[in-house]
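> call design_seq(struct)
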C-alpha cells in the first residue's frame, strides 16, 4: 500500500524495499542520529548494557551520537544492515530518522533527490 503525506509532493511504495538493496542503509557515508531514548531501546534489543553498546556501535559527532558505518570499497553501510537478509537487525528499535525515511523535511523541497535515493518514491 502506498504511503503519502499531506505536506510532501511525493508518495512512497514500500513494495520497492523488496527489490532494493537497502539503499537507505548503505551507500554514501552519512549520519544516522540516535537520541538517548533510542540508544536505550536499541541496547535492550541487543541485550546489551548502554555503555558497552555506545562504545561498540556509536560514534560521537559534536554533542550527538550517530550509528557507526562499515566501509567496503566505495560503500558505507550502517553496522546494523544485514546484507544477507537485506534488512535491519534492530528493525523494531530503529531510530526515528530511519522510521521517517523518505519523508525527511529536506526532501520536501527536493523531491527529485528523494527519488534518486529511494526507488519507492513516486513523484506527483
Ligand atoms: S531506499 Fe527506499 S526502497 Fe530502498 S530499502 Fe530504503 S526505503 Fe526501501
Ligand atoms: S538502523 Fe537499521 S534502518 Fe537505520 S540505517 Fe541502520 S540498518 Fe538501516
Amino acid at each position: 500500500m502506498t504511503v503519502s503525506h499531506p505536506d510532501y509532493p511525493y508518495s512512497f511504495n514500500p513494495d520497492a524495499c523488496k527489490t532494493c538493496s537497502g539503499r537507505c542503509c548503505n551507500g554514501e557515508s552519512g549520519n544516522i542520529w540516535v537520541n538517548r531514548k533510542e540508544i536505550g531501546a536499541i541496547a535492550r534489543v541487543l541485550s546489551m548494557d548502554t555503555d558497552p553498546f555506545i562504545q561498540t556501535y556509536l560514534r560521537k559527532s559534536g554533542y550527538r551520537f550517530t550509528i557507526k558505518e562499515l566501509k567496503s570499497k566505495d560503500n558505507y553501510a550502517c553496522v546494523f544492515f544485514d546484507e544477507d537478509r537485506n534488512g535491519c537487525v534492530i528493525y523494531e528499535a530503529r531510530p526515528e530518522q530511519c522510521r521517517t525515511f523518505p519523508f525527511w523535511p529536506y526532501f520536501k523541497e527536493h523531491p527529485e533527490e528523494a527519488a534518486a535515493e529511494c526507488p519507492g518514491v513516486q513523484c506527483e
